[in-house]
Amino acid sequence: MAKAEHKHIDVTREESVVWFAEQFLKFANWDENNYDAVVKLFSYERYYADTKEKLAKELPDFERKKVIQILDKGINDLSKELAGEIKRRPVNKVDWQNTKAKDNMFVSNGKPIFLYDYFSKTVGQPLTNKDIYNDHLGALYHGGEDLYPVDHDRAINSFLVREDGTFDEELMKELTRIPDTNIGFLVYWLMGIPQWVEEREPEVRKGRSLFTGFDIDNPLAREVWGKIIRKTGELTKGKKVTEVGFVLANEPHWYAEKGHWTQKFQEMTSISSYTLDKFRNWLSTKYQDDINKLNENWDTNFKSFKSVAIEIPIDPALKGLPIWYDWTRYNMDRSTDWFTYVQNELHSVNEDADTHIKIMPRMFMEDSRSGGIDTEALAELTTMVGHDAKSFGSENIRPGKSSKWIEKYAYNWGIVTMFHDFMESVAPNKINVNSESHFLSSGQWRDLDTRTSYVRSVYWLATLLGMDANMGWFWARDPDGSPEDRLEGDLDFFDPGLGGAFAGSNNMQPHVTNEVTQVMFDLNSFSEEIVKLREQRRPLRLFYSETTAINTNDYMTKSYELYENLFFEGFPLGFATKNVIEKQDNNNWDAILVYRNNFVTNEEFKALQGYLNKGGTVILDSAQSLSLDEYGHPRKAKLVASKGKLIVMPKDADVEAIKQTALAEVSGSTPDVVVKVDNGESFKTTTWRTVKQDNGSYLVNILNLGHTTATVDLSLKNGKPIHVNNLMTSNKMNNSFDIPSEGVLLVEVTAQ
Fold first, then answer.
1. Which SUPFAM superfamilies does the record cross-reference, listed alphabetically (predicted)?
2. Do residues 182 and 145 lie in contact, with contact meaning Cβ atoms separated by under 8 Å?
3. What is the mean pLDDT of residues 563-570?
């Protein structure tokens, strides 16, 4: 490093390598000297419980060996640069004090910047502790990492307001004493509710969920939270800790169907009288105050809307029937109403406050729609897009859970990509914040010897597809190596919980934690190029209907199969909904593909017909698509081409035939750079993006998501000879080259 600095070579990357090496050597010593504590930490995670003694014994030397690996790689990389074999671009470091949120990206020192940190950082340590908040781990100031109600460290929670309407000033100090030096984020933590509220409102816990511990329709709960939001919004107005926004909720969900796994946490086992009354009013509006229409539709005999009753949790056997649709649609609308209220209260005192919600991707990706979350509506509502997208780097560790993806791919990339493509389609001009990225481990997967190639690939992929900030899960080491306070002592109050999250996580993985920072350094070095690659037109849009999703058992499963088949064709995929068609420029795409969308509202149908009337192209997978309304009633109207182009596929057309038809319709938008890939398999695993630059050259980003090495051939459509330059090393490459499993490549192609 000294030699490199003498030659004015940037050593930011190596500074982090050395820092992580020093930290994890301390951690290894602590783990070695506290064997019993480490055994206990492994025991909290049932996947490791049977081998906890063996693992605890091996852990210190495992960590030391991984430290040696990252040091050896650092020496090798820097030696190559000193020898002139490679030339790396200097790191574009985050300005943790002055980065600003612009319309659709964060900007630091005049350039796009991708923020990184950990959502939950060791509690009890001051925000000014540079062993915790620095360029290596990230330095976003947190106002809400209190995950459980055993303490209230900096979280904005229900206990801030007393029964007499005054505020608990001691608790409020956890917020007000956050230094106004670094940018950061604040979290509204909705898990608990004060005893005095329960005494005044006995129903306040009815309809609660795990991370929203009260009835969102309860007027007193709303009053309490209105006061909290207005007060905290005023106190933090203009503060740097709000630059990355307010997280309006942690993983909100209200699954209301019988037999759902959330019921073991006593979620949505009933609804309050307030929720029922609001449902009755919703139905009255929906059915134009005509109870006979509702009775005919539901096959009931209610005398008035005031007498309408429904059993919650609802029986999933009712899926596809009008009562199921109405309740499920209402459950979504009421949660959107709650978040609208929360955001409006905040904006009433702080109109410039940015907001996002930590939406679980499963609310969109999974077939179940009883969870009360309209992903599109919430993405449209908040000023930023929020979520906690995850990936699986190895097989699912839970018995009975499928890992079928591993037959084709090195990791489960689809959860990241399909969710991001949807969010970026419905909210293309908003910052995308993953406020709890589970790329490194989760309750369903972890691997102590996680591949650094996986870490690099998944962070690169997510950023390429729109992620502007990620706060990983999780950092729980104090500077001396001991686990943070919440991991020490008796954890019987929560199972598997925070204790189970530590074992096999990045807190034991120097190679993984270092690689997160290294890939973020590289992404930020090429931030302008990454933004160019991801801000491309999406020529093919897959039509998405929440109506079909509510009414069918396999809509998302089948939609993903089509999405997967189209993902490896070299252009960004997009989605279209009624709102996308009506609110966005239809010239942003060439065609809309309608696949397995039998149930749509009249409004959705009219949006598609309106698109055709303006000259658009629609591909229907069969004549059965769009044939039913939201209640399963046959639709007499059929799409007509009008000024546009309507392609109706034969009823027996398979996914491949539909795909080829769609590709033909967008062939005019395919890039000038031709990318041919041979991975030795009958299926595709390599994805790429290309974009033309102002100087006439082309950026090409290539990711191999498969198990095998792939051979790539680059050429131009016009047949002109090309030069290929590896932007990561500044080295010339042949037109044909190999890219390994989980390889990441960014090149520049120039015509000779």
1. (Trans)glycosidases
2. no
3. 97
Alpha carbon distances (Å) from 39 to 17, 59, 484: 28, 10, 16
* DSSP of 541-560: EEE--HHHHHH-SSHHHHHH
- Would you state the pLDDT for residue 486? 75
Give the integer Cα–Cα distance in Å for 261 and 278: 26
User: What is the arithmetic mean of pLDDT over 68-88?
Assistant: 98
Q: What DSSP designation does 121 have? A: B
Spatial separation of the C-alpha atoms in residues 277 and 32, rounded to whole Å:
60
Alpha-carbon span 458 to 445, nearest angstrom: 15
Position 376 confidence tier, pLDDT thresholds 50, 70, 90: very high
How many whole angstroms separate alpha carbon 19 and alpha carbon 6?
A: 20
pLDDT score for 154: 54
DSSP state of 100: E
Report CA-CA distances (Å) from 670 to 105, 236, 457, 665, 700. 26, 47, 24, 10, 13
- As a whole number of angstroms, the distance between CA 683 and CA 706 comes to 10
In the chain, % helix, strand, coil (3-state, to 5) comes to 40, 15, 45
Task: Give CA separation, 127 vs 142, 153, 156, 169, 348, in Å.
Answer: 8, 11, 16, 20, 29
What are φ and ψ of residue 639, in 5° steps? -60, 140
Determine the pLDDT at residue 476: 93
Task: Give residues with Cβ within 8 angstroms of 377, minimum separation 6.
Answer: 332, 336
Strand extents, DSSP E, 152-265: 156-157, 184-189, 246-250
What are the beta bridge partners of residue 634?
Answer: 628
Q: CB under 8 Å to 545, separation ≥6 — which residues?
A: 577, 597, 599, 600, 604
SS3 assignment, position 529: helix
Task: Assess contact for 721 and 751: CB atoms under 8 A.
Answer: yes
pLDDT 10s digits, 342-369: 999 999 999 999 999 999 999 999 999 9
Residue 496: predicted pLDDT: 43
Cα angle for residues 483, 486, 488 (degrees, 5° grid)? 55
CB 367 within 8 A of CB 553: yes
CA-to-CA distance for 460 and 526, rounded, in angstroms? Answer: 11
229: which strand partners?
Answer: none
DSSP for 470-500 reads: EEES-B-B-TTSPBPGGGSS--TTSSSHHHH
Lowest mean pLDDT among 5-14, 115-124, 201-210: 115-124
Structure tokens at 624: 């059965």
- Best CA proximity match to 415, nearest among 567, 249, 304: 567
Average pLDDT over the chain, rounded to an integer? 95
pLDDT at 73: 98
Say if CB 685 and CB 705 are below 8 A apart.
yes
Cis ω for the linkage preceding 496 (within 30 of 0): yes
pLDDT band at 488 (very low <50, low <70, confident <90, very high): low
The whole-number average pLDDT for the span 610-620 is 98
User: Residue 346 is which amino acid?
Assistant: L
Q: What's the length of the chain? A: 752
- Spatial separation of the C-alpha atoms in residues 325 and 314, rounded to whole Å: 11
Alpha-helical runs (H) found in 263-372? 273-286, 291-298, 322-349, 362-365
Distance, CA of 130 to CA of 153 (rounded, Å) = 19
Task: With beta carbons less than 8 A apart as the criterion, state whether 411 and 462 touch.
Answer: no
Cis amide leading into 313 (omega within 30): yes
Residue 377's Cα: distance from chain center in Å? Answer: 16
- At residue 151, the 3 state secondary structure works out as coil
Task: Mention every residue, 6+ apart, whose C-beta is less than 8 A from residue 312.
Answer: 207, 256, 268, 270, 271, 327
SS3 376: helix
Q: Taking a C-beta distance cutoff of 8 angstroms, is the pair 148, 498 a contact?
A: yes
Q: Are 158 and 190 in contact (CB under 8 A)?
A: yes
pTM strictly above 0.70: yes
- Tokens 């939609």 found at: 559
